[in-house]
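Record type: ASSEMBLY
Status: queued
Input:
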Amino acid sequence: MFPKTIGMPPPKQKIETPDPLDVPKAVVNRLSLYLRELRHLLRAQKMTVSSSELGSLLGFTDAQVRKDLAYFGHFGHPGIGYRCEELINAIRSILGTDQEWTVAMVGIGNLGRALLGYRGFADQGFHVVAAFDSDPEKLHRQIEGVPIYHMDRLTEIVRQHNIRLGLICVPATTAQKVADRLVEAGVAGIVNFAPVTLSLPEEISSVGVDLSTELEQLSFSVANRDHSR
Amino acid sequence: MFPKTIGMPPPKQKIETPDPLDVPKAVVNRLSLYLRELRHLLRAQKMTVSSSELGSLLGFTDAQVRKDLAYFGHFGHPGIGYRCEELINAIRSILGTDQEWTVAMVGIGNLGRALLGYRGFADQGFHVVAAFDSDPEKLHRQIEGVPIYHMDRLTEIVRQHNIRLGLICVPATTAQKVADRLVEAGVAGIVNFAPVTLSLPEEISSVGVDLSTELEQLSFSVANRDHSR
DNA sequence: TACTGTGAAACGGTTCACAGCC
DNA sequence: GGCTGTGAACCGTTTCACAGTA
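Status: finished
Output:
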């Protein structure tokens, strides 16, 4: 059930790290949701939470919550449940959001500007330190405190700030070109808001967010009345 | 493998409709991706596509593509593949995007305004016909041709236009209240951009889009170098 | 008593492999 | 030959049920 390596686990580590490839994607997704819920709970002065409480808040079973967390270590206290603050720290460490991430945004259209104004990113440790556009009209200004540069300076600035993530907010037609530039500049991960499938090298992680796709899922549910969620 | 009812299938229907609850959520998601890819192909004058071509464009196996489509009918032509235009129409019909959907947007902050300017919605048949905000500053103007109303008029306008979907673009703290108002007004589905879990009646479909969650998935992949996607 | 952690069973989705068709 | 549609095998995830712990 744990790493394929037969050796014993290291003496006593705070957070166990099974081969990440062994962790289902769905588990990582739920981790984010647990984290969100735990913050709400802590803000409401709740110090401790059981797997069944946390689960029912999100529509999951208690066993699922426990199994998910058990992939990474032993965070619970029998008879007590999970201490919210402790678990928050553990999940942040697992997700890697206990470190600060520097982010570049490419494309300062409607969506790009909106995201620059979104406080939620910084709250989770994601700092947009530079934005890029190829339209000379938009240059040399700052938006929401973020400096705007011409696309020509992408590699230079990415390296200078050691930027590790890129957000693609350009139209579908230019998204692949932008992705190639970001990869060349050395980012490790990409969030793609354009409605196209990017082809990227193996070693680059990516997440696609397509708003039309989300609406289509909803349309299907409503049209077929499947009462989902 | 098909409906539990043992009777024979109806004589010859264009699109078979198994109990939607039997269709895995993941399948519906991929349908959206197929649709997106098919449009690109058709725009590039490709008339016909095989399951293996379509699959490899998206990183799926050929069998997966065929199985997914076979949930809904027999759209392929042995020896030929799938005709792009035909399949586009079939998928649109399955997803329900062959009909027009009227949409209300609530919350005209950064994100709300950006989405009002997003052309992609209208292209897929989603029409935002009214936007709402509780800030009197923002009233009586139009943005991107969409009229803005005060929240007080939500029920009235939703009923008047027979609006069926709602987009929640308000902060987390007010999202649940807005959701309750939308449900009361009679929408059938909700897209929630606020980082909270909504509690909704069974019969309302919903989709949550949380940008921080997406970034966290990416952060995990990069931090654990799992080369995902 | 109240709860976690976890093997084992159950479930559901994906892949395989091939019959059938153009 | 090329390709779809699909039962069956396979595999990964979820749920069950209970031993273990404070």
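Annotation: Residues 24, 26-27, 61, 63-64, 67, 77-80 of chain B lie near DNA strand C (CB under 10 Å from a C1').
Annotation: The longest helix of chain B spans residues 25-43.
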